[in-house]
Structure formats: structure tokens, C-alpha cells
Specification:
InterPro entries: TPM_dom. Residues 4-120 form the TPM domain. It holds the Pfam family TPM_phosphatase. This is TPM domain-containing protein. By secondary structure, the protein is an alpha/beta fold. The chain has a single domain (2-125), classed as Roll (Diaminopimelate Epimerase, Chain A, domain 1). The chain contains 5 helices and 4 strands. The protein has a 4-stranded mixed β-sheet with strand order 3-2-1-4, with helices on both faces. A hairpin with a 4-residue loop joins strand 2 (62-68) and strand 3 (73-78). The protein is globular and about 40 Å long.
């Protein structure tokens, strides 16, 4: 189980980063952690994105952080709305930052840093709307097998 590696304190740190990042944006961030990645990492992340209904946000501005612990696979995937406006190297920069921490077994720290980086872009392009903004997706981490 991925929960063997991600402690309760790690979960709290990751969820706090999500809440911090979403505080200034209408964007939505989710984290999914499982042990094994079936197939290509981006293909699996796309499946999880759909399973979590992340494509159903009003502005199509969801971001998924996908981790397969045992297979040492990671991907960050943005929906169409955000992909249309972020710089071309944006996801690669986040990926490199997260992996740098993962290599030191600092999983929660790496995810928290990447989430905050994504939040900065979301804040720039999808600012928080005080009148009508709702949290469209859960801030909880989803776990696979």
C-alpha cells in the first residue's frame, strides 16, 4: 500500500499545500498515489484524471499529481484550460523539482513544492473569484493499490 510510505503527517502536509495553492485560484489540484503504474505513466495519469472527474471543472483548470511509488513513476497533468496558457516547459520544471525531492525520499516535501509551483501559475491565469468560486474537487489524496 502507498500508505505505508506516505504517513498521516505527510498527508496533512500535502493537503495543506493543496489548500494553500487553491486559496488564490479557481484552479483545482488533486494528488493520486499508488504503488504500480500499469503502462505508460502519462497514459495512466490520464486514466486517473478521468476517474477523478477532473475534466469536469468549469474552466477546465484541474491539475493532477500522479505518483506510482514502487515503479518510481511521476507525472503532472493539466487539463485543457491550463495547458492552453502555461509556458511549454512548465510541467517539466515542476516534474524536475518534485523528482529532485523524491530522489532524497522526501515525497511529501516534493509534492508540496510542486503543488505550490502549480498554484502560482493557476493564480496568475485563473484568479480566485470571491463571488462564485467553489471547491469543485476534493483536496484529499486519492490512493490506488
Amino acid at each position: 500500500m502507498p500508505k505505508d510510505t506516505i504517513t498521516e503527517a505527510d498527508e496533512q502536509k500535502i493537503m495543506a499545500a493543496i489548500q494553500d495553492a487553491e486559496q488564490n485560484t479557481s484552479g483545482e489540484i488533486r494528488v493520486h498515489i499508488e504503488n504500480y503504474c500499469e503502462g505508460e505513466v502519462l497514459d495512466r495519469a490520464t486514466e486517473v484524471f478521468a476517474e477523478l472527474h477532473m475534466h469536469k471543472t468549469k474552466l477546465r483548470n484541474g491539475v493532477l499529481f500522479y505518483v506510482a511509488m514502487e515503479d518510481h513513476q511521476f507525472a503532472v497533468l493539466g487539463d485543457a484550460g491550463i495547458n492552453a496558457i502555461v509556458p511549454g516547459n512548465y510541467w517539466e520544471d515542476i516534474t524536475q523539482e518534485v523528482i529532485k525531492h523524491f530522489k532524497q525520499k522526501q515525497y511529501a516535501e516534493g509534492l508540496a513544492k510542486g503543488i505550490r509551483m502549480a498554484g502560482e501559475q493557476l493564480k496568475t491565469h485563473f484568479p480566485y473569484d470571491q463571488k462564485g468560486d467553489i471547491n469543485e474537487l476534493s483536496d484529499d489524496i486519492s490512493f490506488g493499490d
